[in-house]
Amino acid sequence: MARGMRSSLDVEYSAVGEGLGMREFWLYVWLRRLAVVAAHIMSLGLVILTSILSRPGTSLFSWHPVCMSLGFCLCMTQGILLFSADGSPFCFKSRKWKVRLHWFFQAVLLVCGATGFGFMVASKNIKELPHFTSWHSLLGVATMAATVLQAICGVFLLFPKLISTHSFPRLRLYHATCGLVAYLLATITVISAMFTDWFQALVRGTIWYIFLLLPLFPALVVMNQITSAFLPKKKITS
């Protein structure tokens, strides 16, 4: 068969679904699609709920959770999930179009992250409070650093002439792996924010545990997407 053409009976999939019967396989596919749709909704919901809680404009600090949730919970998540074929609204677009949109989301992420970081610094300076004294702030700095490094790596992938052709596949793998690390760091940072005095003064009881699930579920979906995409591929042939 000519290169680039596949028989309709050959289905390429990752090793995650190996060993399933046809019925179980399609059930697994639909569950994955529902999970991706749920991840989209949860990432948006977390931004909306955070904005309601922080009441942006009431203080300098109030803009910090809004900017950070918009950047790391929404833009970072959407920038990864748009490559998914399982329930993404961009699944019918070409890869070139997806890469451009991925860069748009990551650029907004960096702007939101820098803005949120600036509001936090300004708020603490006005109140004359020390900086980087909590686990949340230290994790936030590590997340920002990892995100900036990921953006630099992405520049080389966007302009492959800057690197050798032999390094491109390896750099793409590193970009995906380190991107997962950056995303998990962002998730841990968001969760650590829920243990701060500010958040626990506003959210208590059962609602607090619901908030805890909102960043965790998208993280599981993103982790599954990245690991599945880079696991060795196998084929089912009937």
From TrEMBL:
Its cofactor is heme b. The keyword Cell membrane does not apply. It is found in: Membrane. Pfam families: Cytochrom_B561. Its EC number is 7.2.1.3. SMART domains: B561. PROSITE patterns: CYTOCHROME_B561. CDD domains: Cyt_b561_CYB561D2_like. It comes from the Eukaryota. The chain crosses the membrane at residues 30-54, 60-83, 103-123, 135-159, 171-195, 207-231. It is a multi-pass membrane protein. One of its GO terms (cellular component) is membrane. Residues 30-233 form the Cytochrome b561 domain. The keyword Transport applies. GO terms for molecular function: metal ion binding; transmembrane ascorbate ferrireductase activity; transmembrane monodehydroascorbate reductase activity. Keywords: Electron transport, Heme, Iron, Membrane, Metal-binding, Transmembrane, Transmembrane helix, Transport. InterPro entries: CYB561D1/2, Cyt_b561/ferric_Rdtase_TM. PANTHER family: OS05G0565100 PROTEIN (PTHR15422), TRANSMEMBRANE REDUCTASE CYB561D1-RELATED (PTHR15422:SF9). This is ascorbate ferrireductase (transmembrane). It comes from Cyprinus carpio. The lineage of its organism: Eukaryota, Metazoa, Chordata, Craniata, Vertebrata.
